[in-house]
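Consider the following assembly input.
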Amino acid sequence: MQPLVIAKDLVKIYQAGEVEVKALRGVSFEIDSGQFVSFTGPSGSGKTTLLNLIGSLDVQTSGELIVAGQAVNQLNIRQRANFRGNNIGIIFQDFNLIPVLTVRENIEYPLLMVKPTPAAERHKIVSELMEKVGITEQAEKFPNQISGGQKQRVAIARALSTAPKLVLADEPTANLDKATSTRIIDLMKELKNQLGTSFIFSTHDPRVVSHADVIYVLEDGQLQTPTAENTMGHGGSK
Amino acid sequence: MESARIAFRNLYRQKRRTGLTVSIIAFGVVAVILFSSLAGSFKNMMISQITDSMLGHLQVHRSGYVESLDTMPLNMIMEEKHIDQLKKALAEISEIEGYTLRILLGTLLSNYADTTNIKLSAIEPGNEKLVTPLLPGRITQGKFLEKGQILLPNLVARGLDLGVASEVVVIATNVDGSVNGTSLIVSGIVETAVGPSGKYGYIHIDDARELLRMESLQVSEVAIRLKDAEKLTLVMNKLQTALKGITDDKGKPVFEVHPWKALSPFNNIANMIDLMTIFIQVILVTIVLISIMNVMLMAVYERTKEIGTIAAIGTPPSSIMSLFIFEGLFLGIAGAAVGNITGWVLVQAVKAAEMTISFGQSDNILLAPQISLSTMLATTFIVILVTLLGAIEPAYKASQLDPVEALRN
């Protein structure tokens, strides 16, 4: 069976004014379906860039990247939007909930605008997800009426609403306290086990990294060779 | 449809911004409705003053007469056989309510001590009242005309110190060049319809025929009143067609048909009012366009991260664009609706207040502003169209945002 994500010699170069920034310098890896994968490393190591490439929000400068069987750099803007809508869920560090929509409506949003779903099925999916992430009681509240941990639960539910093959989470616990961070990571792992959805997240929090099946360490745009220091996960690092 | 639903929710929950934008649009619509209705009312009142107290809606003259109207030439008037042909043509047109025959003549008027020149319109009193029903209302002293009497313009009456029942002598040169005079009794004093420009008085048509020694029926003009003034062009076309075949010995058309617009300088003012109304509408369009573009651009800037989020989770650019276009559309619809309702209420309030204005010699002209459904619909259509145009650029900008850049915002 083909891996869910195949990256070969991925290079991403940004032009910041007149300066050329090499965010990724030849990264190669494979991720299988159903894995709980962490990319860790210091700030500026290229974690977010890598997640943006996997999530088809951006395209590589060179190298090959195949996600869910699709070379995403061959897609145009509209096709990439469709690709994300059908295959990828995204969880943001700042939660990025739509402020004018309630919790229920935020989760429902992708089923209306991204992957239109009949009302009855949509309501069923949203109710089940709210129950799974434990925010049923907050259903009619607006984002500014709930806590950070609850917001991230809403974001997780929203990311899962279209039943994606892969969920990407960029520093999902960065704005949460320790206890909440642990609960959020436990929740993501539980959902991975229940739904079979792959999770890839970036973090530089060692407590969060320790929950991953597979850990990749990025430094200065390159994947590091596994060492005793970065081999912290249950499944070990790659 | 989902884009519309979410756009509506966005507007509903951003009450202050939505309210402000709707108010700006509504203000523009109210301005247009109020101005159009008041200006339209003024225009209609003045047109009706002119047509209903002086000109009638249409006039028929002998060809070339109007060009020489200042001299009121008696050698260019309609002969009896022409009048019979004209009457026959008029009888065929059902839209005509009535008509009256007039002889226009320049005369000298004397009170036996002083003499002045005066232009007289010799009329058929009964028909004249039908064609110009506001004429009796212009009589400030005395009563309407009978045979042997004269209605004097107030300027002449004042100048010659004449009043009701005074005796005057009217002297005129007839078509042969001989001079004749007749004494008449002042039946009333009449004020001019618009402005103190005229020294127009009225005498009975039979007195004029005697004064001018006319043996057969001859008239300078025939004034016509329509059942519906809106059908002016239609009736004019019908009449022109009917009269086209009537020619003189040289094969030239005998008659010329003129609408009131061609006979009154007020038509230029009416055109200016129409132009000003269009100008106000252009201002409205500009206000709406700028405010919508401004609000939508601000919305795009304020919500860059939100746009980045919805783009990142897979919302197609077309859906993002439609989201903002629907927001603009709803703002336009709401603004037009609020503006139309407020404008209509204000028009009714002005109407109920029975505001009057003075224009020229006419006082207490009642302003009766009216706003037609077609004007309201046209304003609504323009506003909605403009809001859509105003929303397109910001909506396109939003749809083209790079999600990665937008999320960094």
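Residues 259 and 316 of chain B are 60 Å apart (CA to CA). Ask yourself how this observation constrains the way the partners meet.
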